[in-house]
Amino acid sequence: MENSTSSKTEFSGKAYHHNPQERNTPLMSDVEYIAERLDAQMNWYDRKSSENKTKYKLIKRTELIIAALIPVLITSGAFKVVQENDLGVLLQIIAALAGVVLVIMNSLLELDEHYKLWKEYRVTCEMMRHERYMYMTCSEPYDESDAYPRLVEKIEAISNSETQRWKQIDKKSDKQAKNPVLEETSNEENKRSSI
């Protein structure tokens, strides 16, 4: 009887090379990789960077305009003509509402992190673009016979570091969401044990 645990399973077909040294040609050419993976990733990061830059600048400009209008509204309410027509109260209400809108916009800007994302996506896009140009011009380290695998390793490392960063952010968010519950539970237990 043949020992099933010691026998190797043989695979056949294109994608089942279990020993990379035996692979004669890559499953994807460098032209395909650049078009389907690298350029697609660069375009995504470029687009997202531009979107976050636009949102950030729009919100900051709106904040600036509102912040500049609040003192004007309050000062205008002090004029005698305005006070006689009961517009002073209306201007104060508008100024107060503008202040509320300003706080909300600032909080949303902080929450959505448009500035941070704009910068991070731009840096990632430019790192990928740099590697692409180095590869396309056969510049070091892409001037050797293993240039294509090096390019893939470098681009995937850049992409993976971005993914790992997002995983860390998710973990921190989860911990922050769980901590208030854990703190309340431990505080209640401490109160009970002291009684």
Automatic annotation (TrEMBL):
- Where in the sequence does UniProt note compositional bias of the Basic and acidic residues kind? 166-177
Q: Which UniProt keywords apply?
A: Membrane, Transmembrane, Transmembrane helix
Q: What is this protein called?
A: DUF4231 domain-containing protein
Any Pfam family from its record, for instance, is: DUF4231
Give the source species.
Bernardetia litoralis (strain ATCC 23117 / DSM 6794 / NBRC 15988 / NCIMB 1366 / Fx l1 / Sio-4)
State whether keyword Cell membrane applies. Answer: no
**Start-end of Polar residues biased regions:** 1-10
Q: Which InterPro entries match?
A: DUF4231 (IPR025325)
Give TM regions.
Answer: 64-83, 89-109
Region ranges (Disordered): 1-24, 166-195
